[in-house]
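Entry 12.
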Amino acid sequence: MADVFQFKPRTEITAEENLRAFINKCRDELTVFGSELDWNAYVWPKFAVFAKLGVTMRKPTPEQLMDTDFVEFAKAYFRYQQGHKPTAAKTELRALRANESALIQVNGDASILGLSIECLDEAAVLTKQHYSDGAAYHCGREIERLAEFVTTYHLIPANLKTWKNPITRRRDITRTGKEAKEVRDKKLPNEIALNALAEIFANDPSDNRDIFTTSVFAMLMSAPSRISEVLALPADCEVTEKDSKGVERYGWRFFSGKGYEGDIKWIPTVMVDVAKTAVARAKKLSSEARALALWIEKNPDKFYRHKHCPNVSDTAPLTMKQACQALGLVNDTRKQCTTSLFNRGLETKDGVHTLNSLWVHVKERLPEGFPWFVKDKGIKYSNALFALNKNQLHGNRGCLPVELHKPTNNFFNNDIVTRDSLADSHKNIFDRHGYRSETGERLKVTSHQARHLLNTIAQRGGLSNLELAKWSGRADVKQNRTYNHMTEYELLAMAERIDTSKTMFGPIGGVEKHLPVTAQEFNSLEKAASHVTEYGFCVHDYTMSLCEKYRDCINCTEQVCIKGDSSKLERIKERLVRTEALLKVAEKDVEEGDAGADRWFTYHQKTAIRLRELVSILESPETEEGAQIKLRGNDFSQLRRVVQKKAGESISNNNSSDEEASILEDVTKMLGGGIG
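Predicted 3D structure (tokens):
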């Protein structure tokens, strides 16, 4: 584990001296990214490129590198933060690049000592110009974090703790209009591509690359997962348990990739057979690699005897052909043997190699971190579902039986996307099997599109936000909104499918009239979010937004009353008596010309009308016992505002279709408001 220290500034010395001490300690004492790290290099392979804002090349030109006045601090800050809280995104680099550019524009030089509120404001402006909305927001947070850091540790003379990120979080997805359609097309997979992958998977492919790609994608379609999570699954991930009703359930045990702890991700019944097949194929594909890894763990000093290994003693001199056979290299001719060994940096002579000497060479080529496949999750290569042999999935190169390979996210995605820059030299799985779009274009999908699709399907099916977040391995339920791509027409269709005789006047569930109710009773309610109120039940989902009525339950459309609950009916009647008394007082005040009395009169009048309606319905012999009563109203909601606006535009716009205008008007009315 890398050495990490907590920097402690000295208050009695200047910011410049503290800054110098901070840089020196990070350079000389930190071992984050390895003790052999070349501090002076502008490119830290696999970790960072210290280039100016807007530069995306991995090998920038000299003029594209960070200013010398800034780069030493940038390296120290980046190394320090990654040591204390390592992240895959490494957003510190974006903040550093934005700050460097801002310092030069404001001060004329890039010294971090000149950082000020004005510089931070300029950095935020530059961030919005160079990054997408979502990336800009997170970069702004990192800029705020950097400002707090240099102030707290007295690395600059100014106090910047008052500065806050001015970049707002990306707004929720709009489900109406052209923009919404473009977002859905981008986030959701192409149906033809999905069907193609399903067909290839169903045909039981024999090619290793096809097996790998289709198995991984089948697993992505079985449960909403990130590609990194699937590729990091252990070989023994499968779990089978019986639920409370005795029904056998199938799932995978794994760790999530973003903040959510390890858990079992259960597979929907309809996908269980597909999921099991995919895992079985992956196990078979990785069996030899896992066997090799286990052998190395148990026999680190003895050559692995694979099926093509020459049958000789470990110390016997080998011919070049035998040496190539042992390593799995091309060996059909003597010239091929010479080339194969030369490319490995090995002697190209007979009798100079033994299995023991070649084993030393093999162990030098083990993957970084071996035996750990994913160390923080406790998964070794010997138990990794997707541990592979080197070149095992390569179409033109022979598989190397004594070398291991860890497939990356990009390795998988490269086989399902198009790379137009490579023209015909890159063929994805669709190209290899001759699948094209209806217009003849090349097909492509991404691993994350499967996650978006499953989340949208779950939303369509009414899965609660809490359960959806848990199923997706998501720490924040608010993030569900980003993955919900239901259209305005789907929302309307859901509303039309509702049986109003059951939902507006039907039983809310098997809840007894007495209080309190049990957790099991609440879980059986039609609405996932439901709690007891003074007059019945509130079905507002507080994971999505706070109460906007401030307990004005009578005038809320999310208030549900139950026919037959006598205690609640008496409270409603008592409220009606009080409201009618207040209405008379307000009416008198209006007649006397008291300021503001008209608003109170209007409110009490509306409340009295709704109370009378409730009493009438609850006492009516035609209302079924146990029925739920939910009065319509004009509650504010973002959806209503969007729909009303869109409806108005559609009706006034001569180019809009009558069908669309009609649909939007129906939705608006359904929500309890007019469109005038």
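Annotation: Residues 287-413 form one domain. The chain has 24 helices and 13 strands.
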